[in-house]
Amino acid sequence: MKLIYEKSQAGRRGLAVPKPDLPVPALPPELARKEPPKLPEMAEPEVMRHFTELSRRNFGIDNGFYPLGSCTMKYNPRVNERLVGIPGFRNLHPLAEAEQIQGALELEWGLQQILQAVTGLPAVSLQPAAGSQGELTGLLLFRAYFDDKGEGAQRTHVVIPDTAHGTNPASVTMAGYQVTAVKTDARGNIDLDDLRGKVNEHTAGLMVTNPSTLGLFDENIEAIRDIFHAAGALMYYDGANLNAVCGISRPGDMGFDVVHINLHKTFSQPHGGGGPGGGPIAVRETLAPYLPVPVVVKDGEGFRLEFDLPKSIGKVRGYSGPFGVFVRSYAFMRSWGPELREMSEVAVLNANYILARLRDAYDLPYDRLCMHESVLSARNLKRDHGITASDVAKRLMDYDFHPPTVYFPLVVPEALMIEPTETEPKERLDAFCDAMLKIAAEAGTDPDTIRAAPHGRPVGRLDEVRAAKEPVVRFVRPE
Questions:
Q1: Which of 29, 111, 213, 427 gives a 20 to 30 Å CA spacing to 437?
Q2: Would you place residue 477 in the very low, low, confident or very high pLDDT band (cuts 50, 70, 90)?
């Protein structure tokens, strides 16, 4: 880290962007104000109090627990934010020469090495800017690989399980493939009998996350690998749930040929509000020639961007990728070092602790140890008391907790998908479980209170049907 910092500082002068002395264009007369704007006169303390009060209404990871399953909303250490603000990184110009950005290139190269070790695959592209873009990029590698083998016209379908993330079928379609859905069996695994009947010479590959969105590690992953590889098809690993297995198992060892890594989920990049993400992909040797350009390579004692990949699918994003994301994730990984496995072990422990505390109050669709998240169901509350998963989620806000993911995966009715991550202590988990148990008890003693929740929030229970039919999608100026 010290070497990278010094190199980034050394390159700072060369990265300065000149500010041209251009004339400021005059405002067209028809747009000029005829009189000063009518702004309210307010004391500074009142303005400060107004915006401070608004900020307190916002729920964030800094002031509460986000148990959103499949999203991995965990606390991001502030030191990573300070590191991304190092002047040599903060002022980095994307068109700077390689000699001026050796520190940044070394960081990117080092990040590639860590991702290779974590995934068990030998080649990495940092370019995709999100998990969804990583998915599309990986599937475009499928297409380039089969086209190069002369099988592009034959391989037309990609298999995805019925528990897949919603981006998976979208990415398959965007890449020009057709979706073949496969069922889940009674244990929460991919149904092998259904799978065998759907894999043939037209199959390009499988797209799956393991552990799945059910929070379960597929017990048949080796058999699944053999089915696809025997058919000449490829295996794609959706890395959204990688937080469960880092240092424990590697997608490459499971037989996957392409993996995307959500840096904004597993490796510290702040996540939420739509911005910024990172979705690097790691691939097996057979797919490395098709990676997007540029890739970062070590050249003697220095580093450079390699563009000379004749079979590359081309660029999928500007420059080499979202650099600020790389700094945060690299710092996070280096701070864990060889103990990165502990991150996943604690995440799995926390999820199973919640599962153990809540299993008697809520329905358990699959009676197994879970991985990074547990999927429960409120169908028992709905059956016995008319209380839905949505009702539970809204009531949970009254206990100052953000709701978990609800109604996903779709194969679980009234699903409650809970992911605690490794950053929450036992005291916080207990407080969350206590609230969930109280709500389950209230379903039998005071269901009307739950149906009217949330209480005491800036916005109460909305008319969801009307909101869907008459959405307000623009600002309406008050009279």
A1: 213
A2: low
What's the CATH number for 83-338? 3.40.640.10
Cβ within 8 Å of residue 387, ≥6 positions away: 378, 381, 443, 447, 450, 451
Backbone angles phi, psi at 275, to 5 degrees: -145, 180
Q: Are 142 and 151 in contact (CB under 8 A)?
A: no
Rounded-to-integer distance, Cα 344 and Cα 348, Å: 6
Decide: 120 and 252 in contact? Cβ < 8 Å.
yes
Residue with the larger pLDDT of the pair 306 and 18: 306
DSSP state of 120: T
Q: 3-state DSSP helix/strand/coil percent for the chain, to nearest 5?
A: 45, 10, 45
Whether the predicted pLDDT of 11 surpasses 60: no
Tokens of 169: 């079928």
pLDDT, residue 19, reads 54
Start-to-end CA span in the chain (Å): 57
- φ, ψ of residue 430 to 5 degrees: the values are -65, -40
**Secondary structure E strands in 23-74:** none
pLDDT at site 456:
86
Q: Are 92 and 101 in contact (CB under 8 A)?
A: yes
pLDDT for position 290: 98
Identify residue 184 by its one-letter amino acid code: T
Is the pLDDT confidence value at 2 over 60? no
What distance in Å separates the CA atoms of residue 107 and residue 36, rounded to the nearest whole number?
51
Asked if 417 contacts 404 with a C-beta cutoff of 8 angstroms, the reply is yes
Q: Report the distance separating Cα 448 and Cα 455, nearest Å.
A: 12
pLDDT band at 21 (very low <50, low <70, confident <90, very high): low
Element (H, E) at 297: strand 295-299
CB 375 within 8 A of CB 412: yes
Q: What is the CATH number of domain 340-458?
A: 3.90.1150.10
Cβ atoms of 91 and 16 within 8 Å: the answer is: yes
- Confidence class for position 291, pLDDT limits 50, 70, 90: very high
Q: Enumerate the domain spans of the chain.
A: 83-338, 340-458
Q: Which residues make beta-bridge pairs with 76? A: none
Q: At what angle are helices 389-396 and 426-445 packed, to 10 degrees?
A: 120
Average pLDDT of the residues in 356-385: 97
Q: Is the pLDDT of residue 225 over 70?
A: yes
**Rounded CA separation 417/403 (Å):** 10
> Exposed e or buried b for every residue in 130-151, given b needs 16+ CB within 10 A?
bbbbbbbbbbbbbbbbbeeeee
